[in-house]
Batch of 2 targets.
Target 1
Amino acid sequence: MPKGRLEAFSDGVIAILITIMVLELHIPAGTSWHALGHELPVLLTYLLSFVYLGIYWNNHHHLLAAVSRVSGATLWANLHLLFWLSLVPFSTAWMSEHRFPSIPTAVYGIVLLAASIAYLILQTALLRAEGEQSRLRAALGSDVKGKISTLLYCLGIGLAFADRWLGLAVYVTVALIWLVPDRRVERQLTTAPAESSQ
Amino acid sequence: MPKGRLEAFSDGVIAILITIMVLELHIPAGTSWHALGHELPVLLTYLLSFVYLGIYWNNHHHLLAAVSRVSGATLWANLHLLFWLSLVPFSTAWMSEHRFPSIPTAVYGIVLLAASIAYLILQTALLRAEGEQSRLRAALGSDVKGKISTLLYCLGIGLAFADRWLGLAVYVTVALIWLVPDRRVERQLTTAPAESSQ
Amino acid sequence: MPKGRLEAFSDGVIAILITIMVLELHIPAGTSWHALGHELPVLLTYLLSFVYLGIYWNNHHHLLAAVSRVSGATLWANLHLLFWLSLVPFSTAWMSEHRFPSIPTAVYGIVLLAASIAYLILQTALLRAEGEQSRLRAALGSDVKGKISTLLYCLGIGLAFADRWLGLAVYVTVALIWLVPDRRVERQLTTAPAESSQ
Amino acid sequence: MPKGRLEAFSDGVIAILITIMVLELHIPAGTSWHALGHELPVLLTYLLSFVYLGIYWNNHHHLLAAVSRVSGATLWANLHLLFWLSLVPFSTAWMSEHRFPSIPTAVYGIVLLAASIAYLILQTALLRAEGEQSRLRAALGSDVKGKISTLLYCLGIGLAFADRWLGLAVYVTVALIWLVPDRRVERQLTTAPAESSQ
């Protein structure tokens, strides 16, 4: 199966999710700076979720760029990832409208954790199809970032019950770690030119 | 007519439908696990509809992969399928918000049944254009799964009036049957390489 | 300018418009057939607008298939068409929620009329770029359908003030006239093979 | 990295933003011309934001047409632009629903200003990757329009506090300046044929 439609469908879903959150933004009740400031925590949470979805799109882009074909199993691994990402607007709204209570803040982290596990499953499915000698294998290396993120999400979820701001701080930290796009694949693609051009 | 825009438009519509349902998810009234649990039936129904739309996208992907060109009639057969799929969020919300009464549960099944018939019409329109000797014909075989699904939808709609949980169980069963993507086409594409590469 | 992104963007906007109307569908207040029946006029209007947007997508597909490149002016002619199409969900909702009063029914016709004029402008802009000897010119012929539609929309808008059902009947008639996709371009493309394959 | 998915994702997000604003349009309370007229300021603001997003899509289209590949940094510069554009529906709604008070009108200008700066950053990132001898560099020239726009946005934001209508008039002026698509790139592409065809 060529990978074109998988990319187009994922682009579509992530583009919708990243913009659908704007619909959750309530128009400030008044027309003063103070009324806008009251919505600031919601706006900042929107920014955080925007960055997270941007990171996933970015990494998805790099991941798929390194493979040439996709199997039926990959299609489902990809839909599984999109399912968890589709819960991001819901958990963002629940957390931010109630101004970050413990449980919604933890649930936000659980959705992020589930999405990161779904991404690992997709990556593994692609790796299995591509083989150990593939460009993807070489590009990914030991995937330290992925492993650290999983640990940090668990830490964030736990901390949300102790101090919600600490939990949020951990989520922001993971986002900052990933803001640098996955240059490994990019570097690999540059040094080892695409098969078609060999 | 090349098939590119038909695929792109269908990808767009299904991507929107699969994510638009998130907008139907009400934020839990409270911030406790109990408040989240209260929304669980709605979340699970969202998951079911997500899987159904995922199945349609997957099968649509496989179906179109086996054809090379589309006619004007196919465009309308495709829009007809998209129309029924577009009613999935509506019937999902009606059924789940009222906690699965008989009639909305039956209507959910009717929408699924209509979508499956629309899919058959699209498949038939493509088959007629491709011919009896085509790869698509060989790939589809006797289409046992399609026929069984139609029967099961009818069963589910009937059972919804006797016991709504039985009706829902049938819908879940059909989804599980299809979760395995339509490997027939994939196998066919692998054994019989695409015409362009012959 | 290649036409790829113009097609992709138009596909995106029309796909969103055609599905966004589902969000306007109110879940029936009760769970009886009667409650669903109460929403039937809204559902039927949704069907009509779905068909109209499907017609535009279909004709847009055929129109663009016959051209090879687009100019800056064409991009704006296309955005102008998309602007009027984007008002379809708004006018559909206004007309159907109030159960088809004269003025909203006339406004629905005015939006359809404006969209059809915008389509003519786009068609003219493409024709001017392609030239009188082009495949597009040959494919479009005298465009009787387009001219009749414009007249019928005016008739429908007028009739909406006399009898709203007559006005609606005219809108349905225009949709039926166009349901047959624009075979002229298709036929032309079949008889006169694409330049690239000559 | 090929630029295909960057274009597809941006097309998706801008297509959604441009249509999502329709959801903000409230159906008029009554069914008279007067009730529709009451919504006219909202409709006209929708038109203004539609034109702005159309301009960005148009210029984005021209900008990307002149480059051949994108880097990881460009992906983020693009997401940064999309973030500010995604706030356009929110600020449009806040400004128009309250009928253009000073602060929301200024905030609308601030969002437009931030988007224009984000566009400049994206342009600069692409220019750096393409080099001083590139077609893009030649096509952009001294970018007088971009510099004037930035000044006018600042003027508009200031004027919004003195007289909101003057502020709005400045925003409309900037839109009119840009309504003419960026022909520089188009001309350049025509005179200097694409590398692939050389």
Note: DSSP finds ten helices and no strands in chain D.
Target 2
Amino acid sequence: MKCKRCRRAEAAVDLPSHHAAFCPDCFFVFFRRQVKEGIRKLRLLAPEDRVLVCVSGGKDSLVLWDVLMEEGYETEGLYIDLGIDGYSDRSKERVLAYAASRGKTPIVVELAKEGIPIPETARCTRMQECSVCGTVKRHFFNRVAAEGKFTVVATGHNLDDETARLLGNLLHWQRDHLARQHPFLPETGGGLVRKVKPLWRVSEVETAAYGFLKGIDYVTEECPLSFDATSLVYKESLSLIEEKMPGTRIVFYQGFLDPSNPLRRAAEAAAQDDAVSPQGGESAAGAGPMGEDGEDILGTPRACASCGAPTFAETCSYCRLKERVRQRRERRAGGRG
Amino acid sequence: MKCKRCRRAEAAVDLPSHHAAFCPDCFFVFFRRQVKEGIRKLRLLAPEDRVLVCVSGGKDSLVLWDVLMEEGYETEGLYIDLGIDGYSDRSKERVLAYAASRGKTPIVVELAKEGIPIPETARCTRMQECSVCGTVKRHFFNRVAAEGKFTVVATGHNLDDETARLLGNLLHWQRDHLARQHPFLPETGGGLVRKVKPLWRVSEVETAAYGFLKGIDYVTEECPLSFDATSLVYKESLSLIEEKMPGTRIVFYQGFLDPSNPLRRAAEAAAQDDAVSPQGGESAAGAGPMGEDGEDILGTPRACASCGAPTFAETCSYCRLKERVRQRRERRAGGRG
């Protein structure tokens, strides 16, 4: 099959949802256009932005960084070493190698050095790893952005991620999560930086094809601590529909984002009632009107007594997690002594 | 495994979504309770109602009729013979046999005699069979109900049907369909009878188990004209989720029906703006603010010039379909003569 764009080269990527098939060069053009269109439509980024790109070593975030650099944005990569045996080393390697190939050095945060590695923190607090990881990552997204004077944080969530999350939120009518699900979360007072998802219009298959054809070497293994079976079930369920009815995912997500959608209007109204709304992350738990710390979010956030981050409690959830790890370590050391 | 209710008999039906397993007798109690709860919660039926139960010969509608009779409702069955070779005869046989076993004689409408059999009508009008069938059925639901002084029409849609439809409506954000999707559609002026779906809380598997254990002989074949592949894909997709997370379907549907759900509130508001809203059926096409006839529904319906049914055009969609069949037959007869 010939490329549908140049009509000369052999097609390498078949895209039934766009009734198209492209050769590698034309696919790059198509993919970048899709990302640009996603940025333009929701005004995710401005030319003068300093963008902190969160890179995990997986395909989505490295592809995101790649496209944003090619589009001329001022970017730096942030890699958070979660302290997971083997997996974290392999991920970091890919991030460093990719960055080096583009003449970049990513900002690296090592959670082990910060005293809050994910596996130990989850054990100490008896919390789910993904939940701990979400809290810790959000903390550093905001902190590194503030320290480095970045105007925006970008993550690599693609259309499959976003629609799986949307389906899960709809199946359980998690209104609080529905209200906060958007590729654009505005900056709010008190140190919560703007967060954007520029890949929201491109699918997982498209992102993987871009990464592969661009020769980006990324980790393919899933995080060994991630037992987030539910989001995989939602993805599989939507893949089944997408296969039979190509294009359903993008229609689903765009219709959700449509400002005239009653769900979005309800979300906007709630946001106005609540001028400073905390930016709950991907794995924020709880369906009620709760902030990322689990406490009631009515009212205005204050500065964490320990680190200064915005919180609705005395200290922020990050500092509380860290304190519990410290106490547990102390008790253990005491027990041994 | 023993029955979780009586703890004596062997369990025959395993229901992971209810963390239960029942012997046949206890399952009957459970199933009827579920249906009663569904009726009570949404006030679908009152003891004094005269219920017209639409029976197709399939499991759902026969089970519905069975439960409503056992619960003491005054019911009659309505069988619409669609005029589909073989399939219609086999379906009618089951309906008549079931009715006879309960000392009943169903009301039978034969579309061939009415001059509007589904296959010929679809050919003449070049419309999809399911769409023609929906229009014709709705017409007779209302007409037979009015003629027989029934206060309500009941159909056998179960939880799987309703959630598949809901998922499809959400994936495409068909707001008009979302606004009209409810197990209770109120009577409106001008001859549109109240329509209810008392099986909305029970799953397909539960309904099939009830029919099987009760010894109800129903047709298992699908309608040969039904190529409604989309609703099957949505069902399959939800089954995949239900299997991993039992109970998701009922949570999904109940959350949708919750009066505080922004989608329902938007639907209520739209209904108030538009005092007489046509009751679009399962296969009503078009996503805009259109009635079942396809014309603009703003304004008040008038009586069809030909049959008196409520319509927003000069004649109702049923009469227009019928007229096209008649004209086509005439042309053919003329061509032969």
Note: Strands of chain B lie at 13-15, 20-22, 50-54, 74-81, 107-110, 152-154, 184-185, 194-196, 302-303, 310-311.
